[in-house]
Amino acid sequence: MSGARRYLGWLLLGLVGAVGLGGAILGIALAPKTATLTNAVVNTLAAPNYSMVVTERTPQGNQTDNLVWEAPDRLGGYIQSGNKRTYVYVLPSGSGSAEYQSITVSATAHPARLTFYRQASQSAASLNPAHNYLLYANDARHLTLTGSTYTFSLTQNSTTGKETGVFAYTVSDQYVSEFNLAVGTSSVHMVISAIGSSPSVQLPAGSRVVTSPSPGG
Questions:
Q1: Cis peptide bond upstream of 59, omega within 30
Q2: CATH architecture of the domain covering 4-211
Q3: 17: DSSP letter
Q4: CA distance 204 to 19
Q5: Distance between terminal CA atoms of the chain?
Q6: Cα–Cα distance, 179 to 171 (Å, whole number)
Q7: Using DSSP, how many helices (H) and how many strands (E) does the chain show?
Q8: What pLDDT digit, counting tens, does each position of 119-163 carry?
Q9: Looking at the DSSP assignment, which residues form a beta bridge with residue 116?
């Protein structure tokens, strides 16, 4: 799943693996029936399924990912830029995962008529925006809570100098429902919904699959 996300530099590096959330978060709570940020992140990532709309804006361009995660390792949907879409699915295959990607088509094209090109892939979990972005809560040290939204900032070195990211997580009931990240002129806005009631992740019925040629083949 390439695209504008790659231009955010350090934003998706270093926190892909699951780690316990830091103790700095533990003391902050909302109303008694609403989860803390710690628990909301854990609950969201442990959910059997959920839908995501992820809008990414960078100087290189903008895109919106409409994706569904289904545990333990299925991710699928489409990436849209302007009026063009690329459909992408990562599904279990033998002892690993396989990525199925369509050519870029009009947003009005019927997915049942698509041809998907299949190749070996990283796991769906490692490519899931929620798995990547929500775990940044682990590095929070000075949280601010306004209503149901937690905010903090992180600074890291990059190839062009220091970059500071401003993170915001909105908790609804027991889950994270919204995430925002701003780094300079780049930003990410993610909405998580239909937790536990999202559709199963599978290739569109009627679509065709071919194997991508190997490099140099």
A1: no
A2: Clam (2.50)
A3: S
A4: 34
A5: 23
A6: 9
A7: 3, 13
A8: 999 999 999 999 999 999 988 888 999 999 999 999 888 777 788
A9: 102, 209
DSSP 33: T
Rg value, the chain, Cα: 18
Q: What is the DSSP letter of 24?
A: G
Which pair of tokens denotes residue 157? 């070195």
Instruction: Report residue 119 as tokens.
Output: 């190749």
- Poorest-pLDDT segment among 11-25, 39-53, 155-169, 197-211: 11-25
The pTM for the full model equals: 0.81
Does the pLDDT value for residue 4 go beyond 50? no
The contacts of residue 56 (CB under 8 Å, 6+ apart) are 3, 4, 5, 8, 62, 63, 64, 65, 186, 187, 188
What angle is formed at CA 98 by the lines to CA 211 and CA 175, rounded to 5 degrees? 145
pLDDT band at 24 (very low <50, low <70, confident <90, very high): very low
Distances (CA, A) of 213 to 18, 117, 120, 142, 210: 33, 9, 11, 49, 9
The one-letter code for the residue type at 177 is S
